[in-house]
Amino acid sequence: MTTSPSHPDLRETARLIRCHSIASIYVATSGHPGGALSAADLLAYLYSAEIGDEEPRDGDLTRNRFILSKGHACPALYAALAVKGQISPTDPLQLRKLGSTMQGHPHVGALPHVETSTGSLGQGFSAALGMALGIRHQGGSGRVYVMLGDGEMQEGEVWEAAQCAAHYKLDKLTAILDYNKMQSDDLNENIIGLEPLADKWRAFGWHVVEIDGHDFAAIEAAVAEAKRTTGKPTLILAHTLKGKGVSFMENYPTWHGSVTMSLDDTEKSLIDLGVAQSDVPGWLDGTIHGGHTQ
Ligand SMILES: Cc1ncc(C[n+]2csc(CCOP(=O)(O)OP(=O)(O)O)c2C)c(N)n1
User: Fold this and answer.
1) Across the strands, what pairs with 175?
2) Contacts 24+ apart (CB under 8 A), 282-287
3) What does the pLDDT look like over 120-175, one tens digit per residue?
4) Contact 195, 128 (CB under 8 A)
5) What pTM was estimated for this model as a whole?
6) 259 DSSP 8-state letter
7) Are strands 234-239 and 65-68 parallel, antiparallel or unpaired?
8) Which of 5, 7, 229, 243 could form a disulfide with 249 if both were Cys (CB 3.0 to 4.6 A apart)?
């Protein structure tokens, strides 16, 4: 993995996203660690380089937007917002609590940093397409980034939106595929195979950039290529590892979700991620070592 010269802190940002994702899933007693961990490096880059740190305002057509279409991975989104200072560092510990802003899938009514509610696979991508169309229609300059999962590619709605985006030449729309090769219970190829995936997107009229989704320099170059591409939307096909960073989760579909993490699993995960309690003040103190919060 290489880091990005323009953003030297990405490795640390991603490490903290992973730590805080695990901590919040432990405290919630349920959640989706596998796909949160695979997405962490991509989110670290987007929230460091592309997404502004101000609270989103609907009428602002100049700001970039991010939509997590694979909404079940929201612990990583909440962690990214917390690490980048957009929400309080302790907010993610409210994950999945009744009435909290940290719903188990991103909820636009609960948290203003969420652009649209997601979780029903396929729908976030269509919403992102609508936003990109709307911004262009009104002469705005903002770009729309949307992250999809590979299991999500099995939704027909994804391909309808992909055709539409290419038809309208939405070159400010960038889709990022967190291609960890697994969905809920198994490998994609044992459920419904997706390959040759890059060729399919090209045939649908998209520009495709294929990268290692854990290599920050490659992520940065792919986003730059998307920005240079005119007349068509771009898919960044990012090869990732489900459960990346936690040895006993890597490439095990069992850790997709909704799992309850034991204290033992949580402590082992945090050791793998190189966490000292002081790395995450207010998150682990009295939480991981003191049991679940109320
Ligand atoms: C329309 C719809 N069908 C089924 C589900 C249940 N579901 C939640 S996550 C998931 C698997 C998603 O796999 P993938 O997109 O690859 O996510 P990742 O591996 O990155 O976590 C499924 C089937 C859902 N959320 N929405």
Assistant:
1) 146, 235
2) 282/89, 282/90, 283/19, 283/20, 283/23, 283/89, 283/90, 283/92, 283/93, 284/23, 287/23, 287/27, 287/93
3) 999 999 999 999 999 999 999 999 999 999 999 999 999 999 999 999 999 999 99
4) no
5) 0.95
6) -
7) unpaired
8) 243
Q: How far, in Å, CA of 128 to CA of 163, rounded?
A: 14
Report how far residue 119's alpha carbon sits from residue 74's, in angstroms, rounded to the nearest whole number.
9
Q: What is the mean pLDDT of residues 228-249?
A: 98
**Cβ–Cβ < 8 Å for 19, 270:** yes
Q: Are 122 and 156 in contact (CB under 8 A)?
A: yes
| Residue 285 predicted with pLDDT over 80 | no
Give the position of tokens 């805080």: 20
pLDDT at 291 over 70: no
Contact of 164 with 136, CB cutoff 8 Å: no
Which amino acid is residue 70, in one-letter code? K
**Which of 120, 152, 153, 242 to mutate to test ligand 1, by most ligand atoms within 8 A of the CB atom?**
152
Q: pLDDT (tens digit, 9 = 90+) per residue, 178-188?
A: 999 999 989 99
Tell me the angle at which helices 74-83 and 10-28 cross, rounded to the nearest 10 degrees.
130
Q: Which atom of ligand 1 is nearest to the CA of 183?
A: 13
Atom of ligand 1 nearest to the CA of 71: 25
Other Cβ atoms less than 10 A from the Cβ of 268: the count is: 17
